[in-house]
Amino acid sequence: MMLYELSKEYDLIVGFAAWVGYLTFFVTLAALACKYIAVQAIGSGIPEVKVIMNGFMLQNYLTFRTLIAKVVGLTFTLGSGLPVGKEGPFVHMGAIVGTLLSKMTKPWQNNAFFSNESRELQILSSGCAVGIACTFSAPAGAVLYGIESTHKYFAVKNYWRSFFATTCSALLFRFANAVIIPPHIAGTIMAYFQTSFPNEVFLIEEIPVFILIGILSGIFGALFVLIHRRITFFRKRNRTYKAIFGNKNVVFTIFMAILVGVITYPDGFGKYIAGK
């Protein structure tokens, strides 16, 4: 944002180029990190973790190399300002860290606690919960996520272990956030346009509007799923798309980064959909 503000003072075209170029540069670095370090780091990682939790081992998805690629790629992606979340990558990274820590117990494999194969799945599930706790600083919600989303059968005796792990991770995240980030930039995002909403949670006359919003949200959600399905089939079947992009993930990533940069340009349509 600072680079864009300085460039905009010189010329609007230079500011536009700085905005799009900055976003594209860091997104490209993230794509290259996944391509050359570990392709298993592509995507959120949650579907793959669910597959592993159900007993199907996927090669190299829970390795240290994949963890490095995930950290580097996510850092560059978030640093670019691309509107993506970190929940999925954090779940994947938590699962990797849990797996790597469980491998450190090999000297004690003769112990009854570590020799049980179900312990590995429990540690993996706790790792997923830790990823959620680091994202939202919500230990209880993270444990519930680990129960409902990653494991078909969850041992009751594993509740307190997952909760202990998520609590430690949430506290450490809060501590690091308070110590590392300077106070003058530690706040949340700022809106472009200030508002003056009343202190009341809602007014009675607003209830019909809430109902309408719920109906429209359901319709738009269904349309989103339909459009996403059409786009997915288009990418698989269209010959022109295959000729231009094919399996060239980096090229497609650069194209999408430029497109997102154009849409989110602050002096254009972006001022209506983003903060600073």
UniProtKB/TrEMBL annotation:
The keyword Transmembrane helix applies. GO terms for molecular function: voltage-gated chloride channel activity. Keywords: Membrane, Repeat, Transmembrane, Transmembrane helix. The chain crosses the membrane at residues 12-34, 67-85, 123-147, 159-181, 207-228, 249-266. It holds the Pfam family Voltage_CLC. InterPro entries: Cl-channel_core, Cl_channel_volt-gated, ClC. One of its GO terms (cellular component) is plasma membrane. This is Chloride channel protein. It comes from Acrobeloides nanus. The lineage of its organism: Eukaryota, Metazoa, Ecdysozoa, Nematoda, Chromadorea.
